Amino acid sequence: MKVVLTTVKSASVTVDEQLISEIDRGFLLLIGAEKGDSEADVTRLSEKISKLRVFEDSDGKTNLSLADVNGEILAVSQFTLAADVRKGNRPSFTQALEYQEAQILYEFFLKKLRDAGFKTLPGVYGANMAVSSINDGPFTLILRSQNGILT
């Protein structure tokens, strides 16, 4: 499972010109599930995301967590994170987890983040979304878990 995490001043998801979700300061997460991913990967990633200290303190050091800044989460599914671009010029998505299985893991991810006490808003699973953000930094991380272990 892969997650692209970006700190944002604000972020939103719109589908068919209708605002679906909007957050202020926090994390924009792009979540991609691959074949072999499991609830153990979701658990490991959600635990790490919950504790990351990536916001600046009063001394300008990245020392504050999402909870410390009362941040919010916008979590968007993005199967294209499973793309393989090694051959040719057209990405292959054969490593992407099947639609329904990936949706189950995505919903579980949302639950884990909410259970950790974070306001967590979703995109629309499987929809063509317009995702907007005002990045803060920018500060972007790529997190990956396989078999419940960060890689």
Keywords:
151 residues; alpha+beta; D-tyrosyl-trna(Tyr) Deacylase, Chain: A; two-stranded antiparallel sheet; 2 helices; 9 strands; globular
Structural class: alpha+beta
Question: What sequence of helices (H) and strands (E) makes up the elements?
Answer: EEEHEEEHEEE
Assign an overall shape.
globular
Question: What would you report as the Rg, rounded to the nearest angstrom?
Answer: 15 Å
CATH topology annotation: D-tyrosyl-trna(Tyr) Deacylase, Chain: A
Largest sheet composition: 7 strands, mixed
Q: Percent of residues in helical segments?
A: 10-25%
How much beta, percentage-wise?
A: 35-45%
Q: In the CATH hierarchy, what is the superfamily? A: D-tyrosyl-tRNA(Tyr) deacylase
Low-confidence stretches: none
Q: Please give the count of helices.
A: 2
Q: Judging by the overall fold, what is the CATH architecture?
A: 3-Layer(bba) Sandwich
Q: How many domains would you count in the coordinates?
A: 1
End-to-end gap: 10 Å
Number of strands: 9
Q: Please state the average pLDDT score.
A: 97
Instruction: Indicate the CATH class.
Output: Alpha Beta
